[in-house]
Amino acid sequence: MSDLDESRQLIADACRVLAARGLAEGYLGHISLRVDAERLLVRCRGPQERGLAWTTADDVHLVTFDGEPGATGELKGWTPPNELPLHTEVLRAHPDAQAVVHAHPPAVVAADLAGLGIRPIVGAFDMPGTKLAAGGVPVYPRGVLVRDRRLAAEMVQAMGDRPVVVLRGHGLTSSGTDVPEAVLRAISVDQIARLSLTIASAGGTLRDLPAEDMAELPDLGGAFNHATAWRHELARLG
User: Fold this and answer.
1) Which tens digits make up the pLDDT trace of 209-225?
2) Beta carbons of 11 and 60 less than 8 angstroms apart
3) Could you please report the per-residue DSSP string of 104-145?
4) What pLDDT score does 131 carry?
5) Over pLDDT 70: what percentage of the chain?
6) Quick one: pLDDT at residue 77?
7) Which of 25, 111, 132, 219 gives 20 to 30 Å between its CA and that of 169?
8) Using CA atoms, how far apart are residues 133 and 81, in angstroms rounded to an integer?
9) Which are the contacts of 183, defined by CB distance < 8 A and separation ≥ 6?
10) How many other C-beta atoms can be found within 10 angstroms of the C-beta atom of residue 59?
11) Can 216 be counted among the known catalytic residues?
12) Is 172 helix (H, G, I), strand (E, B) or coil?
């Protein structure tokens, strides 16, 4: 397989992971990966759309940041997602970001609308997620389709220097140095949102992890937090 073929398969697998985790149960959502300064691979829309759970490498195509076909003349019968600018503006604004995930997790939408922010309420339950939440997960307060660079720039401004942003009444956008990191961050945000809703519905009060406990959380390294976690997600697909 060529590098591009391997990347297409990676994105397809990642889309299926999002669906399996309940972050993109229907046909809405997409993942992209930067190829170079002018192009990215992205899950596109085709004539036989079936949803993210059934994504294959054939659904992933090379386009420019302006949504034009890559040098290989791709996109015959396929179209980039309407929200391609959501991906490209994050990549333009965050040079370290190589991958972008956009999904519609119901729990994330519900928690935000209920006034429950993504906070570091857990500890060793999900250490990367706790540290992500402790750094802040901002909210883009407009429930719009991020279909052009103007709206995408608004979203990126709300995102600031954070790798994840919640989109009110819409979903979330997450980024990472690779596809697995961007997906795993989205999963962590979703897990915290689910727990927050459960706690609130039980009449509980959300409390941030105490500082002394936060200081005790070790960094188990990328081999465990990312590589092992990603193998687990792929294994869950069967």
Assistant:
1) 999 999 999 988 877 77
2) yes
3) --HHHHHHHHTT-------SGGGHHHHHHHHH---EE-----
4) 96
5) 97
6) 79
7) 132
8) 28
9) 14, 17, 18, 31, 101, 174, 176, 230, 233
10) 22
11) no
12) strand
Among 64-68, 93-97, 105-109, name the one with the lowest average pLDDT. Answer: 64-68
Q: List 30's β-bridge partners, or say none.
A: 102
User: Tens digit of pLDDT for each residue in 109-156?
Assistant: 999 999 999 999 999 999 999 999 999 999 999 999 999 999 999 999
> In angstroms, rounded to a whole number, what is the distance separating the alpha carbons of residues 24 and 152?
20
pTM: predicted TM-score of the whole model, two decimal places = 0.95
**pLDDT bracket for residue 72 (50, 70, 90):** low
Task: Return the closest-CA partner of residue 98 out of 109, 87, 83.
Answer: 87
Give the distance, in angstroms, between the CA of residue 119 and the centroid of all CA atoms in the same chain: 18
- Domain positions in the chain are 3-236
Distance, CA of 14 to CA of 178 (rounded, Å): 11
| Domain range 3-236, its CATH number among 1.10.260.40, 3.90.226.10, 3.40.225.10, 1.20.1260.10 | 3.40.225.10
Residue keyed to tokens 């961007």: 182
Phi-psi region of 138 (alpha: psi -120 to 50; beta: other; left: phi over 0): beta
Question: CA 65, 80, 109, 152: dihedral to nearest 10 degrees?
Answer: 30
Question: Which among 25, 83, 89, 233 is annotated as catalytic?
Answer: 83
